[in-house]
Each structure stands twice: as C-alpha cells, then as structure tokens.
Amino acid sequence: MSTISALKRFASLQQPLPARVFVPYSQLQQQKILESHLISVLHECTTLNQLKQVHAHIYRKHLHQCCYLVTKFIRMLTKLHVPIHSYSRLVFQQVNNPNPFLWTALIRGYAVQGPFSESIRLYCCMRKQGIDPVSFTFSALFKACGAILDVNLGSQVHAQTILIGGFASDVFVGNTMINMYVKCGLLDCGRKVFDEMTERDVISWTELIVAYARNGDMKSAGDLFDGLPMKDMVAWTAMVNGFAQNAMPRKALEFFERMQDAGIATDEVTLAGVISACAQLGASKYTNWIRDIAENSIYRPANNVVVGSALIDMYSKCGNVEEAYKVFEAMKERNVFSYSSMIAGFAMHGCAHAAIELFFEMLKTEVKPNHVTFVGVLTACSHAGMVDQGRQLFATMEECYGVEPTSDHYACMADLLGRAGHLEEVLHLAETMPMGPHIGVWGALLGASQIHGNPDMAEIAASHLFELEPDSIGNYILLSNIYASAGRWGDVSRVRKMMREKKLKKNPGCSWVEVKKGIIQEFFAGDATHPKTSEIRKALEDLMERLKANGYQPNLGSVPYDVSEEEKRRILMTHSEKLALAYGLLNTDAGSTIKIMKNLRICEDCHIFMCAASKITERKIIVRDNMRFHHFTGGACSCGSVWYKKGHGRKGYAMGKAGGTGKMFAIVMLSSFTEAEQIAAIMICSHCWHSKLDRRTSTAGAPSSTVGRRSSSDV
Ligand SMILES: [Zn+2]
Ligand SMILES: [Zn+2]
After folding, report:
1. Which ligand is nearest to the CA of 603?
2. Per DSSP, what are the bridge partners of residue 226?
C-alpha cells in the first residue's frame, strides 16, 4: 500500500479527537489502532516528504503529544539522515511531557549525527528533570562516547549505570559498553565488562573476538570463539578474517573449512577474507580452489562485485595478471574497487600502458576514480617511465577528477621523477608538499639517489629519514651502499658505526621457492643449512659456468663491503634468490615456471643473473621482491631493468624482444618509442593476456603497496 493511499484510509477511519478529560474505552481503543497503523506507515517511509505527510496526520489526529508515536517519528527522521537540529529537535520541543524513550530518541539522534557532546548535554537535562534513563539511553550514550573516543566520559556513563542500578544484566547495554571500550583502545576493560555480564548474546562474543583479531591477539580470539555456545556466520567470519588479516592464512583456511563442515552459510565478507588468505599463500592450488568455491556459491565473481574485486586482487598479488584480467572481463558490474584492483595489478606487473588504458576506459563509465585508483595509475606511469603523462595526471587529479592528492600520491610522484633522474624536482616536491615531511617521498629520493649514483642527494634524503624513522635499518644500509658504490669507504664505515651504536640488526635476506605439489622451500642469504646444500651449490656453479660462457659477469658493485674481488664473488653466489633458483631448477619439471619470492629488494647482480638464467634454461622465472614482480623471460625482465639502469639503451632491447617470447613485457619499456611503436606493442600485450600463458605463477603475499619505499637487498 502506498503511503498516500494508506493515509487516505486513516483519514476516513476516524474523525479528529476533541481534547477532553474523559475518553470512553471504545474511543481509546480506536486511538490505539490508529497509532499502530500510523507506526506501520512510518516504517515504510523512504523520503522526507512521506514523513512530512505522516507528521501532518499526527497533528490532525491530535496525536502530537503521544510520546510513543513521536519517538518512532524521530527515530525515522534519524534513519533518513534528516538534520536533527532542523526537525527532530522542533518536534521534540512540542511535546509537553516527554518520557524517557522520547528523550532517548533525541539523544540517540545526536549520537548518530553529532555533535556528540549534545547527547551528553541532553542526558544531563533529562536527569535534572528527574526522569530516569532506560537501557536504550545508555546504549546511545556509549555510542556517542565511542564516536568521540572519549573513554573518560564513557567511564562516567558506565558509573551512571551502576549508580542508577538495574542495568548490570542488560545485554544490550553491556554490548554497547564493550564496543565503547574497544573503540577507545581499552580492550582489557571491554573484556572485564564481558566477564561480568550475567547474560551474553552472540554479539557480545563477536564484538570481543573482532577486537582481539584487530589487535593481532588471535590466541584470545580463538579462546573466546571456542567458548561461544552458538557460533553463527558472523562469529565464524570474524575468525576467518582475523587470521587472514594477521598473516595466518593457513589458519584462516582451516577455520573456513571447519565452518563449511559445520554447515554454516558463507557470505561475501567471508569469501573476501578467504580469498585474501589464499592471496597470501600464493600457491596456485589455493587460488584455484577458492575461485571454484566462489564460482559455485551464490556470490559468483561475475555477479558479485565484492567477490570479483577480491579475486582480481588475489590473482594480481599471486603473479597471475592474466587470470585477474579474465575475472575482471567477466564481471557484469564493476565498481571503483574492481577497476582500482585491476589497474594496480597491471601496474604491479609492469603492464603500465594497460593500466593507463584501463584508467581512461574507466573514465568513460559512471564509476568515478578514487585515491586508490590514482595510486595505481601513477605507479604505472612510474614503472613505465612515463614522466609527462604522470605529471599531467598528478596536476589535474583534483581539478578534473575531484581527488585531492594525498601523501601516497606525492610518494608516487617522487618515485616517478626520481627514477627518471629528476632528483632536484623530487627534493623540491619533498620540501613543498602541503602535508609536510613524509617518509615515502624522502625514501623515493634515497632510492633514486642510488639508481643515479648521487651520494650528496642521498645524504639529504637519509638525514630526513633518520629523523622520521630512526630505527629503520633499511635507510642506513641503502646509504652505506650508495657510499660504497661511489668508493667512499670512510663514509661507509661511519654509517656502519651508527648502525652498531643504535644496535640495529639487519633483516636477513630470505627467499622462498614453490616446487612440485605446492611445497614451499625457504632460503636465507648465505644459507648452508639445507640438507641438499652441496647439490644446490653444484647446480649453481654449473649454471654460473654456462652463464659466463654466454657473457655474464658478476656485478661486484652489488657488494657494499670493502673486501677482495674474490670474496665479493663468493658473497654474490650465496644470495638467497640464487639458492632458491638453483633449488627450483633441481625440483621442478623442465619448462615449467619458477616462482620465487623475496623479503627484500632483488639486487642488481641477481637481476642480471635471473635475466641470463631465463634465457639459458628456457624457463620463465618470476621473482616477487618487496617492490614489485619481475617476470624474467628469454633474457629480459618485465621491469625493463629500470631500477638497475639509468634509463638508457632500453629501446633497442625492447624491440629485440617484441617478436619473441618476451613480447608480453615489451610494453614496459615504451617510454622512448614512437607512437606507432607504442600502439603495436600495446596490441601485442593485450593479445598476450588472452593467450594461454603458463598459469603457474608466483608467490605468497604481495609486494608492499607503499610506493616510493625502498629497502636493501641481500648484502
Ligand atoms: Zn642478489
Ligand atoms: Zn626486473
């Protein structure tokens, strides 16, 4: 029934009630019927206009003093986001004797819309008038305290519940109290409230489980979960997502499987959590497993934009950008997350032009780009060395697309300009950016100083970084490496001394390689503990001989120590990714892709080594370091080696590859191409996404999304 026709029916239902002292029972009964009808009409209202019509009827029927009805009316106004000051407040003021429920409706309105302090003020007024609160009053007050993160006020309200009494057993009050303490960061107080509750429901448990998971305390979350008598979907999902967010992907999968065995339904939130867990594991058996589950659920990625976007993100992070694009293409509806994940995926894998092309395609749709989208496109520009394109996008993003540049975007720009060698411009950017000094931007300058061998600029960047993040060892190592490359050994030992004084320990370089049956092996730099060490060493030496015969020379500049050349050669041979490669070659089938991931950045020597090895062994090698993916094929890398060269001589190299197996990645190196050459390469590239490339691509986890960050490689 439409609102209007419903109201018409009520109009005919009864004549206006004259105000009088005595109301006969029959009339009273009719009034009650009218009230309940009006309330059901109220609940169906979806616009302010409809509410106003109901309000008019309330007046015409002389019901504007009925607290019950007015309470419901104010709650509806709040629900429809009608500004509380301009309407609800006035309605409230018309009532001569508001009851606690009506007071609470107004207090709650302010707790939802703010100003939150008004909730507290109203509560004091109510108490001054001698009106006792009800449980809803406290839940509204706790909500307000949680919103302003004022635990002091929150504990005063808590004291009121004790002072007035009778609320200790109210589960609703208890739950909002837990929520308030948790929001204010006092998890222990939340737990205390929980422990003292005489009655709890599934919300009380879940509230705390989620809080523990956010705090990274999965042990306590698990203990609580075990004690929960009736576990519903929300509670299970809290556990699955908690493990996924705390980098415990195997546990997340285990809980998901238990959840399925218990016959609990899953929703898109659960699925997104499991997908993120699979992304962390990276092994293809998990990614395909969860894709099949999603495909067979009611949340199919093609129809569900949340699940679809999560899958795109997963495949991109696992090194399989072709599969990510397939998911993207099949999606019937796409939102800003789907586009942003796909753009970021392309950027991460060096398909910069594809990323930018997709961005412009997105602009033609209704979907508006957001801050994440711009991080993706600017990263793409950076990886492809498209300086002018990046500058233009950065300059117009606010004006043309309404996205205000954040520090992340400044970091992208610093990265882009720094790689291209515009170090002075990065310095200017860092000194003038509106949000003040920023780790990302200085970090990008430090990284760029390394690429372009500029120790003076590195000193400036490092001095800022030492202040901003005094305990981050990566900055010290990078600076000492830059001095080492310039042969300034005195400065190297000065930096090393600083590190010793600060007692900073270096993160050991560590690589993982996936071999048959999805088994993952771990190697540390200089690792001689593996049971097959001698076999691995032998394989590595054999490979080295073959590479040397083909012109490979160890890049001794990658070793930042003042040691003999022989020692430098020896150190380079023990880099963790080389050990992982040798193990991978021994333990995978001929012709299959080798997937390696690394906690630090791959060094220049290992990068040259992998390029050469991919050609000699005719294997595709994918290395995910903490910056990005490197796809090595036929002697070339998808990153165009931009991190390792000063941007020269890339053109001929790319052209040489465009016809061969490396054609998919020719696209990265297009910055120096003519327009016609670029278009040709884009076509080659887009063709490759649809071709059946080897799907068995890399790795667990994902490279750090923070652009402009850098870190040391194995030293
Ligand atoms: Zn290395
Ligand atoms: Zn590379």
Report:
1. 1
2. none
Q: Is residue 431 included in any domain, yes or no?
A: no
Smallest-distance ligand from the CA of 609: 1
Ligand 2 midpoint to CA 637 (Å): 5
Q: Please identify every residue whose CB atom is under 5 Å from ligand 1, which is an ion.
A: 575, 603, 606, 714
Residue 296 has pLDDT above 90, yes or no: no
User: Which residues have beta carbons under 5 A from ligand 2 (an ion)?
Assistant: 630, 637, 639
Q: Is residue 20 part of a domain?
A: yes
pLDDT digits (tens, 9 = 90+) for 692-706: 222 222 222 333 333
Containing 156, the helix (H) or strand (E) segment is: helix 151-164
* CA–CA distance, 84 with 235 (Å, rounded to integer): 34
- Taking 3-state DSSP, the helix, strand and coil percentages for the chain, each rounded to the nearest 5, stand at 65, 5, 30
Task: Output the CA 336–ligand 2 centroid distance in Å.
Answer: 29
Structural domain range at position 588:
510-690
571 CA to middle of ligand 1, Å?
Answer: 9
What's the CA-to-centroid distance between 604 and ligand 2, angstroms?
Answer: 9
**pLDDT tens profile 559-595:** 777 778 888 888 888 899 999 999 999 999 888 889 8
Task: Tell me the C-alpha distance between 574 and 577, whole Å.
Answer: 8
Residue 224 has pLDDT above 60, yes or no: yes
Asked if residue 494 has pLDDT above 70, the reply is yes
Does some domain include residue 318? no
Q: Closest ligand to 645 CA?
A: 2
> Quick one: which ligand is closest to 638's CA?
2
What is the per-residue DSSP string for 219-240? HHHHHHHHH-SS--HHHHHHHH
Q: Identify the pLDDT of residue 609.
A: 94
User: Could you report the per-residue pLDDT of 163-181, keeping only the tens digit for each?
Assistant: 887 777 788 889 999 999 9
Domain count, the chain: 2
Is 256 within a domain? no
Ligand nearest to the CA of 637: 2
